[in-house]
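Risk register update: the risk of archive-format incompatibility is retired. Evidence:
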Amino acid sequence: MNGVLSTEDIDRIAEEAIDSESPELLAASLVDAVEHGRLKDDADVSYALIVAAEITADAGQPDAAIALAERGIEAYEQSGNESACYPMAVRADVLFLAGRDEEAMTQLSLLRDQLTQDSEAATLLSDVLVSNGRAETAEAWLTEALGVALRRHDELDSEPSASASDEVAMVAFELLQARHAVRHELELPHDDHDDLADELLDALEEPDDGPVLMFLPKPEYDEALSRWPQLAADCGATWDEHRAMTERDFASFAEHGAVRLAAVVGSADGLAAFARATGSVQLDGDVVQAYSDSLVQAGSAEVNWPPGRNDPCWCGSATKYKKCCLPRS
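Archived output:
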């Protein structure tokens, strides 16, 4: 690969690596693009290196993956970002894979410092600790950070800076939800903070339920495109584009406050039958949306979004969400 790589190209390489017989070559292509200035956006340097690190780790080369993750952290910090939560989490995960548990915990201690500052830190840290058999540590660290965040929120309630209060509230919310998930994993009884996590989530869900998006699995999407090539314009020219567009739509709705997002699975035959029943002559995005609405009204099974980072992806690939559709958003 000698061309310039965009963010979408990096996403595609990450996806290809899952089933590739030579994933190390794909990782090398990312590193080469970084070293020879072939990234479309310089802000993607850290992302390319971290994806290369994850691919290399999955290929059974933890030491090389650690080195790439360290470069990713350095690039992230040099880009002007105040924290490097995602690269740090990846490096810690790879250190565990290499059997270097003490170093992994040292890395996570740095990520721990971000728990009261960065709303992304709670989920990233808890995912790494839980997946490496340290859920008790995750619960203890999250509980401590939550206490700090809640006290800080109470202090800011009396101050005029609404933006600062909102930021602390978001940190506290993510800490509550991550802690709640870890305690569920540990089968611990509900405490007051667990109840608060549920109450806040319920309060969010009631006024802002998000839309249910229709999604076609790969065989169905390929069949639909063969029947109606014009769908490519609204739904994606390939199945990868279709699920990437769906993932980005989910992320956009979530960013604007929608919760309880879900996908409903459609089929090419179902779309054809709907078109016939409604007298739709030209299949386009509006017809697809109407078909989606009909599936929801009929009570078709829904797939909730987002899944956990380590859970199977919503698109049906059976790959972990963090290595499948999550990077596409």
